[in-house]
Amino acid sequence: MRDEEADKQYHLREAEDKEAADFISQLVQQNSNDSSGSSSTKNSNKRKAIGNSEGHTVKKPNGSRNAKQNAISSENKQTDFVVEYLKKTRENKIVARQAQIRINNLKKVLLTLKSEESTMANALKRENR
Questions:
Q1: Are 60 and 49 in contact (CB under 8 A)?
Q2: How many C-beta atoms lie closer than 10 Å to residue 19's C-beta?
Q3: Is 38 exposed, middle or buried (0-12, 13-18, 19+ CB in 10 A)?
Q4: Most buried residue, 18, 72, 96, 125, by CB count within 10 Å?
Q5: Rounded CA separation 55/72 (Å)
Q6: At 116, which helix (H) or strand (E)?
């Protein structure tokens, strides 16, 4: 019985570790500076400029692809992501606890049925003697 409990604890910890690793990898992916997702760095460090009709360089518009995100909005996104992750984790733990309670109740019922079965079998043996 203790081996089963230890095995369950191990699998629960393993699942939590995997969730944490996934969570961290998602954060890293969201905070990546490479917006294209490309691993190529050939052109990534070059500064791109837009020229006007006279050939002069002008500032890129705010909606351009390489415009930096507002730090506050990025922080809010991360906070929302963390809050959502924690909610899901709590919900999963609640469901796991409820399932464990049901499993334990079923084990108790099974033990009760086995003991009743054995008492009935013993009673039948006595009658047959």
A1: yes
A2: 14
A3: exposed
A4: 96
A5: 36
A6: helix 71-128
For each of the chain's 129 residues, which pLDDT tens digit applies?
Answer: 577 777 777 788 888 888 877 887 777 777 665 555 555 555 554 555 555 555 565 555 555 555 555 666 777 777 888 889 999 999 999 999 999 999 999 999 999 999 999 999 999 888 887
How far apart CA 90 and CA 84 sit, in angstroms, is 10
Tokens of 4: 């089963």
Per the confidence metrics, is the pTM higher than 0.85? no
SS3 48: coil
Nearest to 12 by CA among 124, 99, 105: 99
* C-alpha dist (Å) from residue 85 to 24, 26, 50: 11, 11, 41
Query: How far is Cα of residue 61 from the mean position of the Cα atoms in its chain?
Result: 37
